[in-house]
Amino acid sequence: MASEITRSDWHFTSDVDEFLAHAADFLHSRPDLHTVHLTVTAQLRRRGPRAYGEDPPFFGFLTGADGGVGATLLHTPPYALNVTRLTADETEALAERLLVLGRPVGGISAERATAEAFVAEWARRTGLPGKLDELERLYRLAELTAPSPAPEGRARPAGASDRDLLIRWYEGFVADAGVRGGRDAGEWADFRLSYGGVTLWETPDGTPVSMAGVTLAVAGQVRVGPVYTPPELRGRGYAGAVTTEVGRAALAAGAAEVLLFADLANPTSNALYQRIGYRPVADWAVYDLAGQAP
Known about the structure:
It contains eight helices and twelve strands. It has a twelve-stranded mixed beta sheet with strand order 1-2-3-4-5-12-6-11-10-9-8-7, sandwiched between helices.
C-alpha cells in the first residue's frame, strides 16, 4: 500500500523501511515508551513481513505542520493495533481515518489514557464498545538488586539442544498469559536462538527450571520477556534469579534501557520485578475490539 496523505496528516504504509525513514527519529526520542514499535520493526526487518502472521503489517505516522512526526501506529495481525501516545484530536483523527480506510481493528494496545480514549471514540463512531483484556505496567531497570536469598544453580544461554524445551515453555507462557497468538512456537524459538535471546536458570545438576527472554537491542533499549517457570517449579526464586541475570547481561552488553511489561493482575510478578530493581514508567491497556469492524 502506498503512503496516503490526508488532511489530518496521517500517512499509512505497509513497508517497514518507508515507515522508519519517516518515524525513526520520533521512535528513538523515547525508546522506553516506544519499545514495542522499535522491537517489532527490528524483527520485521530481520525476519520479513510474515514475522508475526500471514497478513502484512500496517504502519502509520502523524506529521505536524513542520513535517515532524508526533505519533505512530503499527499493526501486525492477529495482534492488537499498537499506538503511541495521542492527544484527543489525534485520537479522533485516527479513528476517522481507520474507518474511512475500512481497516479492521481487532484490538488496541497503548498507554492507558490513549487506549481508553481510542476505545471511547471508536464506540462513539460505531456504537460498539470495547472490552478490557489486560492492564500492564511498563518497568525500567533502575538499580539491579540480586534476589536474596538466591536459589541454587546458575544462568546459562539457551542453545540449539534446548529448542524443544523452549517451544514447550513458550507454549506454556502463551497459555498462562492468555496471549492472542499468531506466532509459531518453533519459529519463535529459532529466532531467539539465532541471537542468544533466551537465558535459562538451571539447578546444580543441570536441570533447566526457568527462562527469561530478551529482545534485540534497538536504540539502546532491550525488553525482557517472556519470563516463564513451569507451574510445579514456581515459588522457589528461579524467575527472579534468571530475570536478574538477563538484566545484568543486557547492561554489560551496553543497553541503556532494560525494560519489561508486567500484567497488573499478577501482584507476585510486579512485586518481584520491583524487588530486583525495576521501577514503573507507564501503565498500558489492551482492549479487545474483535468484531468491531465498520
